[in-house]
Every structure is written in structure tokens, then in C-alpha cells.
Write a structure and sequence with these properties.
Length: 217
């Protein structure tokens, strides 16, 4: 799908200026950058949670799944929370098993730990098919085992649905494991986009090289 160019401003200050770019179905796109470069703003605009300054970046009719950085839980059971996206109880249990939280099915969701809430939210957003799945730091509050389970579910969901995945992550290791292509943002602009190995190992833009050098890559 072709994402249209757009800008996003707050209080008269432009924080994000994106050109047109393409997100192909079945591909995972890792978005990396230093803090404050616009990653979460990009997710919010593409998900429709924040309006751009003008235009419609995502074509009409595109089904979007969005997992924001801050996971939320309603005051009901974990299973009921997950089934808000779809009433398929069997699929809900499958998602919980995949993420290792089936034992929490009847627990009050608003009493979970941060990592448990994040896994529940990941299960919920992957309950129904979409064309574009936007994940904003989906594993930031998880331990290593939970992260591995969630990454596996993301890959399985991508294969199952053929959706494009926009994965915003602070972890270069995660980007290297999951992403087919990398988008690097610098000061609110798309500085570089390309195949994972090219961007992470042979970056072309000086800002990308500086960021990766600072991260010890």
C-alpha cells in the first residue's frame, strides 16, 4: 500500500515530515531512531489516533490494527478483554496459549503486571485480520521469554494474514530479528529506508551511521 506524504505539528512546531513510502503486505518494517525523532507520532498518525496536518496518509478502506505504546486493560477478565476485538473464544484461548497467559484467562485484567498487560494487549490486537498492523514498542515491558513468544506470534500473524507490519522498536536486536526492511527517522524525517542488512550493516545516511555507531553496532 502507498502511504501518502504528510506532516504533523504540535503548537505550531513540525515534529514529523514524511514523504510518500510503500508498505507491502507480508513484510515487517522496523522503525528505529533516537528518542524524540517521531516514531510514536508516526504510529499514531497512521493508526488514525492523531490527525495529520492535512491529507489522508493511509488509503481509505485499509484495515488497521494498532497497539499503542501504553497498553490498556478494561475492568473485566483477561479473556473478555481479548474477546472485545472478536468474539471467537477458541481463537482467544489460542492467542493466550501462544503468549503463555492462558492461566490468566479469568483474572481481572486491570490487576495484571505491566508485562502481562502488554501480552494481553498483543493478543487482543491480533484477534482479527488487518491489512496494516502497527505495533509501538510491543515488548518494551516484557522479559526475554515473553518477548520471544510475542515476536513469534507477530511473525505467525503476518504469515497468517498477509498484512504489512510497522514495528516501532528501541531494540536494534529486535529489528534485526524481525524486520524485512528498516526505516530510520532523524529529527522527524525519514532519513533512510532499505533492506534490513543494508541499513543496519551498510547505512548510507550519515545520521544512520552516527546512530548505529553510538549504539555500538
Amino acid at each position: 500500500m502507498r502511504i501518502g506524504s504528510f506532516t504533523k505539528s504540535y503548537a505550531g512546531r513540525t515534529v514529523l515530515e514524511m514523504p510518500e513510502f510503500t508498505l507491502d503486505g507480508g513484510m515487517i518494517y522496523g522503525v528505529i531512531s533516537a528518542n524524540g525523532s517521531g516514531k510514536s507520532t508516526l504510529a499514531k498518525v497512521l493508526a488514525g489516533a492523531e490527525p495529520p496536518d492535512g491529507g489522508t496518509p493511509v488509503p481509505e478502506g485499509v484495515r488497521i490494527g494498532y497497539l499503542p505504546q501504553k497498553s490498556y486493560a478494561f475492568r473485566m477478565s483477561v479473556q473478555a478483554n481479548i474477546c472485545l476485538a472478536s468474539g471467537d473464544q477458541g481463537k482467544a484461548m489460542d492467542r493466550m496459549r501462544a503468549l503463555g497467559i492462558e492461566h490468566l484467562a479469568r483474572r481481572r485484567a486491570d490487576r495484571l503486571s505491566g508485562g502481562e498487560t502488554a501480552r494481553m494487549a498483543a493478543a487482543r490486537v491480533m484477534m482479527r485480520p488487518c491489512d496494516l498492523l502497527i505495533l509501538d514498542e510491543p515488548t518494551a515491558s516484557m522479559d526475554m521469554q515473553s518477548t520471544a513468544l510475542t515476536e513469534r506470534l507477530i511473525q505467525d500473524f503476518r504469515r497468517e494474514t498477509g498484512c504489512a507490519v510497522l514495528l516501532i522498536t528501541h531494540s536494534l536486536g529486535q529489528a534485526g530479528r524481525l524486520a524485512d526492511r528498516i526505516l530510520f527517522l532523524s529529527r522527524g524525517r525519514l532519513a533512510e529506508e532499505g533492506e534490513r542488512e543494508q541499513v543496519l550493516r551498510r547505512p548510507k545516511h550519515p545520521d544512520t551511521r552516527e546512530f548505529l555507531d553510538f549504539c555500538g553496532v
